[in-house]
Amino acid sequence: MKQEERKVCFDYDLQIEAYRFYGIMQKFPNHFHEYYVIGFIESGQRKLSCKNKNYVINSGDLIFFNPFDNHACEQIDNKTLDYRCLNIKPEIMRKVVKEITGRDYLPYFTNPVAFRSEHAQLLQHLHQMIMDELLDLEKEETFYFLMEQLIEEYCEIVADIKLDKVEQKIAKICNFIEMHYAEPISLDDLVGICDMNKYTLLRSFARKRGITPYRYLQTVRINEAKKLLELGMKPLEVAMQTGFVDQSHFSNCFKDCIGLTPGQYRNIYIDEIK
């Protein structure tokens, strides 16, 4: 079996993260990110679930997650996974899109998988330059040319959508969770802010968001924890400030969703802080 390797680099020129997971077998539970993910499979076959649809992804396939797209994946070929991805915050994506298109908007990737994409090789080349921490013209040039192609081929501009009554209630619940994530939250608390019984709330939330309220809460906590770790805060302090019962629970949840321990993630940014 391949020796497991997990590496993350933050590129200060492009202001994006690059992940490299090599030889892993980890199953990732249903979760979401607040940023865009553009990744590809180097080797290994996985079952991907995204927004309540299932896909089988293989070597050469690209994957796209918009912010808040719920997704989960697991290995199905009994072999390890080799995977690379770029994580791009919405504010950086908006800046890049405006530079490329001249228009101020956030793009929306219409499908989470591009099978056997011709762009995989260019993405791999860009990713490796970031991993090698290169500071040259080719890296930035490759990034912009790649993003131009991906936006043109796989994205659309989404018009504002009016929310129905159920969606308005779910949005209210999400807002409550995002405001009170550091506090203990019960199902009674959520029922108290919307006109639903417990079962209807759970079913409606899962149907609309593709994720349960509890998993939504945990994901919000993890996303907030990342921001604190990036500032150099110690994992124990972060656990206490983001609503986890203890550091062990925090570490397990963080690795389940991110693929790294809180300490490993913090170390990406600690040298820059110093």
UniProtKB/TrEMBL annotation:
Keywords, in A-Z order: DNA-binding, Transcription, Transcription regulation
Q: Does the keyword Glycosyltransferase apply?
A: no
Supply the CDD domains for this chain.
cupin_YbfI-like_N
Could you say which residues form the signal peptide? none
Residue ranges of the HTH araC/xylS-type domain? 171-268
Query: Which SMART domains does the annotation name?
Result: HTH_ARAC (SM00342)
Q: Which GO terms describe its molecular function?
A: DNA-binding transcription factor activity; sequence-specific DNA binding
Q: Which InterPro entries match?
A: AraC-bd, AraC_XylS_family_regulators, Homeodomain-like_sf, HTH-like, HTH_AraC, RmlC-like_jellyroll, Tscrpt_reg_AraC-type_HTH
Report whether ATP-binding shows up as a keyword of the record: no
Q: Which SUPFAM superfamilies match?
A: Homeodomain-like, Regulatory protein AraC
Query: Which protein is depicted?
Result: AraC family transcriptional regulator
Which species is the source of this protein?
Lysinibacillus telephonicus
Organism phylogeny: Bacteria, Bacillati, Bacillota, Bacilli, Bacillales
